[in-house]
Amino acid sequence: MRDFYRIGVKTFSVLCISAAISGCATDQSGNTAQTGTEPGVHTTRNHVVAGLASLIGGETFGSSIGNMLDNMDRKALARRQQQLLMAQGDNRTVTWQSDHSTMRATITTSNTRQEDKSIRIVRNADVAAPGSIHAIGARYQVTSSSPVYLSPSTSATVAMTLPTHSVIMVVGQLTGQNWMLVSQHGRSIGYVAASSLQPLSAGSHHAATSGTFDLDAEPAAPEGKTVSSNVNASVTCRDLKTVATDKGKSSTSTETACRSAQGVWELN
Description:
Layout: E1 17-18, E2 24-26, E3 32-34, E4 41-42, H1 45-53, H2 63-68, H3 71-86, E5 92-97, E6 104-124, E7 133-142, E8 146-149, E9 158-162, E10 167-174, E11 179-184, E12 187-193, E13 197-199, H4 202-208, E14 226-246, E15 249-259, E16 265-267
Parallel strand pairs: 7-14
Antiparallel strand pairs: 1-4, 2-3, 5-6, 6-14, 7-10, 7-13, 8-9, 10-11, 11-12, 14-15, 15-16
Keywords: Signal
Protein name: SH3 domain-containing protein
């Protein structure tokens, strides 16, 4: 899987990227605008750029489709792919049409499943390495004031305490344990009891946008030493079929995309 931490920042327009269903309106060219009322909306710029960049590049569409696209169409089609991947469920089909050429495409998702993979996790150096996890990559809300521990134990050092109703990105849940690994700005910062967290819902999203503490909306702590390690994880994957047509010519590409621990979909 592509390592999204290493993808360079590009000057793409801001997208609506969500760990669940994002509140976005999309025109035929694949441009998006946040509608702001759906659950799980997460627009941290680094995540947006990473999610888009992981789908861009001629080879990611298959060489034949990549050769049919100019740079603008490549970006627009990638945006449309990412938006469909964020939706729940299989056998969903959307259409895309270029706003400046005769290119058009249909995109279909199918075969959503769990796969065992090795994923890279970046964490603060004082945070204990996780064992195997079920990767989640979604924002959760704290149901009651909760400590963030440096290791998955109530006797471990407390890194910080999250106030009730605060919002945090959950990297994943430790396999067979009641602990969630949580992150800030892409770096894992510690462990929170799973019983203290719930997925961000439509009702709690309003609270999150009206003054509730959101850790990813806060400035990152001063850059300290970080470490990275590969972790065995169960991740959500989905097949993505793209059929592009232009001036009577057609090309089909089928890839597998998996959701990362930071909530963006990456092509294998």
